[in-house]
Amino acid sequence: MRAAVGWNQTEQDWRRLLELEPSGCFVACEGGKIVGTVTTLRFEKAFGWIGMLLIDPAARRMGIGTRLLLRSLEFLKECGMECARLDGTPMGYNLYLRHGFVDEYEIQRWEGISRVETGAGLPPIQKPDLEAICQWDRRLFGADRSRLIASLWNRNPSCSAVIRTAGKTEGYVLWRPGARAWYLGPCLADSAANAQLLFREMLSRTPGEPVFVDACTKNPWALKVMEPFGFQYQRPLVRMYRGPHTCPGEPVSVYAIAGPELG
Description:
Elements: H1 2-5, H2 11-20, E1 26-30, E2 33-43, E3 47-55, H3 64-78, E4 84-88, H4 93-98, E5 102-113, H5 130-141, H6 146-155, E6 160-165, E7 168-176, E8 182-189, H7 192-204, E9 210-216, H8 222-226, E10 232-242, E11 254-256
Parallel strand pairs: 3-4, 8-9
Antiparallel strand pairs: 1-2, 2-3, 4-10, 5-9, 5-10, 6-7, 7-8, 8-11
């Protein structure tokens, strides 16, 4: 089903979501066959994240997407979450509007082939770095996502880079293999210069490989950081929310999101 719609997630990505929120992942079945999925993640009491709303192309226009969306909202409400957020694709956008979601800002998918041969010499994230990175990330993301960051890092510790000066975190990036391309994100930095160093480091470690980046357009520098690397625009997403959104974080410091299914 994932392959039929060209999504980039792998089995490992699905397993991560099941590990992080085992009671909040749902499937729709028809004749013993899975025809739809949706996942959720809870970030403290700040908001819940809805992702992987995926319907088999042969089972569309049967109301399955609506039922799965409502089930995910019901689960988050049961858990005491007043705000739900998601990244809406063009195909799902009207569905989310009908169920009370409103626009927050645009996310843009960019893709390219890594042509970088020499990196910035940044070190990978080490386990002792994680606590400081997660504390810094919490302010910028808007909620604690240390379990997610740790899960991404634990699976691929070498697929990471960090900038720290005098014990202060100034940026970090994680990346992972996908079904169609390497995925760069999350990438957060205190300046465009540091973000570009992080991008360069990641690309230098995946030479000649296809790479996807979902850039946060709320950050005026996010697209400019990619300019030297020859990436091309692929498609839009719209970050949306429903309910009282009191923890927006500081998206001006977000250069690449963790993924549409992760936030």
